[in-house]
Specification:
Elements: E1 2-6, H1 11-15, H2 19-26, E2 27-28, E3 37-42, E4 48-52, E5 59-60, E6 76-82, E7 87-91, E8 94-98, E9 103-106, E10 113-117, E11 126-132, E12 140-142, E13 148-152, E14 161-167, E15 178-184, E16 190-191, E17 196-197, E18 201-208, E19 216-222, E20 225-231, E21 235-239, E22 246-249, E23 254-261, E24 270-271
Parallel strand pairs: 1-3
Antiparallel strand pairs: 2-21, 3-4, 4-11, 5-10, 6-9, 6-11, 7-8, 7-10, 9-12, 13-14, 14-15, 15-23, 16-22, 17-24, 18-21, 18-23, 19-20, 19-22
Length: about 280
């Protein structure tokens, strides 16, 4: 179990950050490491993002010191999306097999969680998000066919994309955690454009399916004080509640969005006009 802690910073502090400081505060450079669990605990809504890639052995989820808990999900819920080969998660004795781009929700009170891969040559890559929880909802696997799917954007504006809402109200019951996946179509590079912010929720993006030699520039900051962070394949970025979150790649790509905060209303967002961005 490896983890680091990120403290919340204000818009005023962020304005003064150089490239190194922006990356240190918001970028999660290494999400997947063989046979280990990598986690980042952020003080924005006490959110945790990270991942595990079991290769030679199974990996067991354990508590970390910031939680002050006897087991990880004692007071938390968790969402997991597999972006690698087939893998299995055993939660309190129940086995859930996850294919590529399938999701699993684990409710508060789940004590033992073990991750494994079906094939060491093509290991599972379990992307993990977790938020504090006040109620114990049932564990549930969600396939792509069970998700809510929305088509947005157009090729003319280079933002044609498919949004797959996996762990979200209407599909599954959660306390505050929501997760889904956005896939850019060939020829499209812009995500979450027009940009928006939601002061009632924070968010984390994991960028993946980025072709070799290509990158994504993630945009954050206040609408009139934007900043950017260049990101590589399978890296994640923390987006504060006061910040926009959008990106543009040198190729099409996929990203997972996860969020938590005051409500579960996916449509509760403040749209920022493209012409107002600075």
């Amino acid at each position: 179990m490896n983890y680091d802690v990120r403290y919340a910073v204000s818009p005023q502090e962020t304005k003064a950050m150089d490239t190194e400081a922006l990356r240190k505060n918001f970028l999660i450079e290494e999400v997947f490491k063989a046979d280990e669990i990598q986690l980042t605990y952020t003080h924005y809504d006490r959110y945790i993002a990270g991942g595990t890639m079991p290769v030679q052995k199974s990996v067991t989820l354990e508590s970390i010191d910031p939680l002050k808990a006897s087991y990880f999900l004692e007071r938390r819920e968790m969402g997991i999306i597999n972006i690698g080969g087939t893998g299995t998660i055993v939660a309190d004795g129940t086995a859930y097999e996850l294919q590529n781009k399938e999701a699993l929700y684990l409710g508060k009170g789940t004590k033992e969680v073990v991750f494994s891969s079906a094939d060491a040559q093509n290991p599972a890559k379990f992307y993990i998000n977790s938020a504090p929880a006040h109620h114990a909802y049932p564990c549930k696997k969600v396939t792509r066919n069970e998700a809510e799917v929305v088509e947005l954007g157009s090729l003319e504006t280079a933002n044609a994309r498919t949004i797959t809402k996996l762990l979200i109200a209407g599909v599954i019951e959660t306390c505050q955690l929501q997760m889904g996946m956005t896939e850019l179509k060939t020829g499209s590079v812009w995500n979450t454009m027009p940009a928006h912010s939601h002061d009632r929720r924070m968010e984390v993006y994991l960028y993946f399916d980025v072709p070799e030699g290509q990158s994504v520039s993630h945009f954050m900051g206040e609408p009139t004080e934007t900043r950017h962070i260049w990101m590589q394949n399978e890296q994640a970025v923390i987006s504060p509640p006061w910040s926009i979150h959008a990106g543009s790649g040198t190729s099409n790509y996929t990203f997972i969005w996860g969020m938590a905060g005051e409500n579960l209303d996916y449509g509760d967002m403040d749209i920022r006009k493209i012409t107002e961005l600075r």
